[in-house]
Amino acid sequence: MVKIKDIKTTIYKWTGEIVSPAQNFCTNPTDLLKEKGDKMKSFRFHEWLVCEVITDDGTIGLGNAALAPEVTKKAIDCYLKDLVIGEDPFDYEYLWEKMYRSTMAWGRKGIGMVGISAIDLGIWDLMGKIQKKPVFELLGGRTKEKIPVYASKLYSQPIKDLQIEAEKYLKEGFKMFKMRFGWGPKDGSDGIKNNIELVNAVREVVGYDNDLMLEAYMGWNLEYSKKIIPELIKFKPKWLEEPVIPDDIPGYVELNALGNIPIAGGEHEFSFLGFKHLLELKAVSYIQYDANRVGGITAGHKINSLAEKYNVPVVPHAGQMHNYHLTMASENCPFSEYFPVHQVEIGNELFYYLFKGEPEPINGFIDLDDNIPGLGISINEKYKSDFKIIE
Q: Which domain holds residue 259?
């Protein structure tokens, strides 16, 4: 029986080339403020936390976290690691509750839960390696031969460039696409017109036989959402994602109840209980947790089962291996998000530079290898010199 001997956290800060986002690149919660300048600054991820869960026999499980890595590292190093050292990693349910309940005064959501997620991912990677099985097999095995994925980028940009990008993904075999809006409430009727032009431009390329998802990334409010939704219905979107901030749950409930466009959300919600609340209120038609912030695979697996009882599909945020394993093992996860490989811009692309092992899509599908144990990722030595490493 192995025991957890240590938890090691390392920050990888990107020092390579960065593509600067254009103006009106993507709506976000700061759009409603009077501030000017780089509004995306708080929502770019140019550093990543790697969390190694190390056992007394030398086996290492890799977890990770993208949100506020420096603060998350402190939470793990100062509060969480001592709660699991000396414990059996296969007691993952107990360890999760121990971390959650021991940090109740300040954890629950946000940084505390991100830290728990990083350790939990490492524990699941560890269990897979010890049992010589991929994580999805530990979760119940395959529910699909391959995972359909949607191309997730198409940020606001000049119409011609946007259509060229959409055409590229179409030629690569994708049949599902997600795009972002560039304007919000402060931009008035002209902003609504600009947003509609973006959607129309992408629909012209991908047609109506393919799925198109729309994302506002928390940049609108309830009033603006109710004003623009009637203009979007004709484009037949599969969903409208995060139209309001995550704490405006009544806003989610009202928009989802309209029934015009299914509402998706949950990327910025935390824990099983957070999603239980959303489901009970019928606040969303699609759930989009991310396992490296929601509470890890332990929490994600429970959310999948709970959402199935409410007939609400789960499509985890960001793809990435920790989410792909959950998707593969659940009938209630019909497809996954996929961020196309790209120069570092917002920062979601950083996962490909930091880790190797991510599957590449072929004609809009990815697959997981039955013969690779754990999560199937390791540090990518090829780009290691492009990171500043902080231990």
A: 138-380
